[in-house]
Amino acid sequence: MALANCASSSRSNLLKPLIAVLSYTETLRRPISTSTDPLTIETSLPFTSHNCEPPSRSVETNPQELISFFRDMATMRRMEIAADSLYKAKLIRGFCHLYDGQEAVAVGMEAGITKKDCIITSYRDHCTFVGRGGTLLEVFSELMGRQGGCSKGKGGSMHFYKKDAGFYGGHGIVGAQVPLGCGLAFAQKYSKDETVTFALYGDGAANQGQLFEALNISALWDLPVILVCENNHYGMGTAEWRAAKSPAYYKRGDYVPGLKVDGMDALAVKQACKFAKEHVLRKGPIILEMDTYRYHGHSMSDPGSTYRTRDEISGVRQERDPIERIRKVILAHDLATERELKDFEKEIRKEVDQAIAQAKESPMPEPSELFTNVYVKGLGTEGGIMRETFISLPSRTHQKQRGATVKKSTSSFIHAENLMMKSITRVQAPQFDYPHQFCDSRSTTRRISHLHRQLRSP
Predict the structure, then answer these.
(1) What values do phi and psi take at 186, rounded to 5?
(2) Pick from 286, 225, 232, 237: nearest CA to 263
(3) Staple partner for 257: which of 7, 51, 69, 91, CB 3.0–4.6 Å?
(4) Is the separation of the CB atoms in 169 and 254 below 8 Å?
(5) How far apart are CA 250 and CA 244, in angstroms?
(6) 307 in helix, strand or coil?
(7) Which residues, 6 or more positions from 444, have their beta carbon under 8 angstroms from its beta carbon?
(8) 62 and 35 in contact (C-beta within 8 Å)?
């Protein structure tokens, strides 16, 4: 026993110097770099161009930017994984399209432009919104349909919006955001403010006729618009080679220059977007094809493994993952240690969990919000005509006592309907605060018919 204690004591004494050396080394190791001293890093792959000279592969960056790339992409990844869990727990309803795997496009694009430039995208919009300065709380509140959301809980996953940062949505109709983006660019050229618009779409939308119509007039007028095809190689469950005779989307503009970019490399995306902005301010439109990949299925209803193999997905994760690429660059330049990057990821998990908890506390929208942000302000409907009618609808708990009340409500409803239809025909130049404020007489008629049925049902 005494011998064992002696041996243990000897080992302890031998380890003390080693522990002291390790502690001393830890104190000597420099902290995470926040330097803005320039670094030049080469992109992982060369750019491929069409009708233009490609930009240099040597990208100017700095330690602070690289650390921010890592943190921003890790936040986006964790946010999307959390959204997956919330959807499966039925806290998020409806459509939900996740962006994990494509984070380098959102982060790299922001690094090459300013918040005065505009971005408009499709329904896979969560990370683009965060890149524009949106908060995690706004994201989860909107996803769960709460008042604290970026669109007041009325847009959901597909209709994020941040006008003060030049983010014009989040659009659910395939390819429809491209003509709108060209319209934004027209306004920018008219204003002569030296800003540009990035109109993002997927390879599934690349065959849309409206895209080519918008591109044609943008080229005629030399509008400062960059069409960005986020080619994740699958339009819903259809592989690009099955849907497109020519999947070289950067060449699709014919008379419009194009550039193919490694969309899994944030630095390459930054360089391409910076190059594209300079180009369109002088020469008009350009197409950027971002070669990227999504890890989830098209939406939460798509397992994502029926039209591609699990080996394909894991292969991209291992060889091209955008976060791991930046991690390797940071470690190679001794800007942070592996443990420090792991600590970042732990902090991000806590931030995401806190945002979810806060979002759950946010109230649901008031019923009266059904009629706001739909029609142009000042034409009556925002002033309470429909709101009063909605409030006067008889409760289902008083079905047997309707009588004259129903006739009176129906009469006032028809009067409100007539005023609404007149106001729609008077709309000349709408000013929208939210993307849901578009006047659509067909959808209005459907809502009116639905309310009529409610009033007249026994």
Answers:
(1) -60, -45
(2) 232
(3) 51
(4) no
(5) 13
(6) coil
(7) 420, 421, 424
(8) yes
| Residues 446 and 165 sit within 8 Å (Cβ to Cβ) | no
Tokens 């309707």, located at residue: 402
Q: Nearest to residue 269, comparing CAs of 413, 146, 143, 103?
A: 103
Structure tokens belonging to residue 86: 């919330």
pLDDT, one tens digit per residue, over 204-251 is 999 999 999 999 999 999 999 999 999 999 999 999 999 999 999 999
Stated pTM of the model: 0.79
For the beta carbon of residue 347, count every other beta carbon within 10 angstroms: 13
Interatomic CA distance for residues 198 and 371, integer angstroms? 31
* Sheet architecture: strand order including 258-262: 48-50, 258-262, 286-291, 225-231, 197-202, 118-120
Backbone angles phi, psi at 201, to 5 degrees: -155, 165
Whether 116 contacts 281, CB under 8 Å: no
Q: Which conformational region is residue 269 in: left (phi greater than 0), alpha (psi within -120 to 50 degrees), or beta?
A: alpha
Through-space distance between the first and last CA atoms of the chain, rounded to whole angstroms = 91
